[in-house]
Amino acid sequence: MTEVHSQNGTGKRAALCFVGPIAHPWTQSLRNVLCGLANDGVTDLTLLMSSTGGNLTEGFAIYNLMQSLPYQIHTHNIGSVHSIANVIFIGGSKRTASPESSFMFHGFSWTFGQETLDEAQIAERTGTMITGRAEYVSIFSSRTKWNAETFEQRKLFDRARIVTPAEALEANIISRVDHLPVLPGIPILNVAI
Fold first, then answer.
1. How distant is the alpha carbon of residue 95 from its chain centre?
2. β-strand 42-51 against 12-19: which pairing, if any?
3. What is the distance between the alpha carbons of residues 45 and 34, in angstroms, rounded to a whole number?
4. How many CB atoms lie within 10 A of CB 33?
5. d(CA 173, CA 170)
6. What is the spatial distance between Cα 80 and Cα 49, in angstroms, rounded to a whole number?
7. For residue 5, what pLDDT is reported?
8. Cα–Cα distance between 82 and 106 in angstroms, integer?
9. How far apart are CA 83 and CA 33, in angstroms?
10. What pLDDT, on the 0 to 100 scale, is given for residue 10?
11. How far apart are CA 26 and CA 20, in angstroms?
12. What's the pTM?
């Protein structure tokens, strides 16, 4: 772990770059860094992120971890935030986006690959997706201007829908559209596997 220094007596600040899927081992590395920063006494983190999304369980776990950490997290979209990565993004207490960024929403899916499933397992997976959808909407309802009716009206789960930074600003997904400079002297860490 890189040593994190105090900035002008205002506490320890750091920036963290995460560009990758919401899937193991990427999320394991992200959790390790987030927890390590807490152990290092960080008081303010800027999470620069871009992700195509991925695993629902991993996404909700990262969101809940972020809510439990003892420091403020400012999330900033540096590219594209898709699918379950949107839940992680809105976990920030402050949220911004670069002008050339985007957010993407779509329905939930489950990759079966080579698995053979019986009826009970298929019903279990379906229940997990229905519950995940309700949790997703609940988190957005509590942190943005979007609620279940918005998701229904905009058909955000029916087909892929790209949301621009201007639309995200209007929905209170973000508070500002801007290229976010990382202040000089603040350590910038990168999540890597």
1. 10
2. parallel
3. 9
4. 21
5. 8
6. 8
7. 45
8. 8
9. 22
10. 61
11. 7
12. 0.90
C-beta neighbour count of 98 within 10 angstroms: 17
Torsion angle defined by CA atoms of residues 32, 35, 38 and 40, in that order, rounded to the nearest 10 degrees = -40
How large is the angle between the packed helices 26-39 and 56-68, nearest 10 degrees? 10
Q: Pairing between strand 102-105 and 161-163?
A: antiparallel
41 Cβ partners below 8 Å, 6+ apart? 4, 12
pLDDT in single tens digits along all 193 residues of the chain:
444 444 444 689 999 999 999 999 999 999 999 999 999 999 999 999 999 999 999 999 999 999 999 999 999 999 999 999 999 999 999 999 999 999 999 988 776 677 888 899 888 888 888 888 999 999 999 999 999 999 999 998 998 999 999 999 999 999 999 998 777 889 999 998 8
Give domain limits for the chain: 12-190
12-190 CATH choice from 3.40.50.11690, 3.90.1300.10, 3.40.50.300, 3.90.226.10: 3.90.226.10
Which of 133, 126, 121 is CA-nearest to residue 110?
A: 126
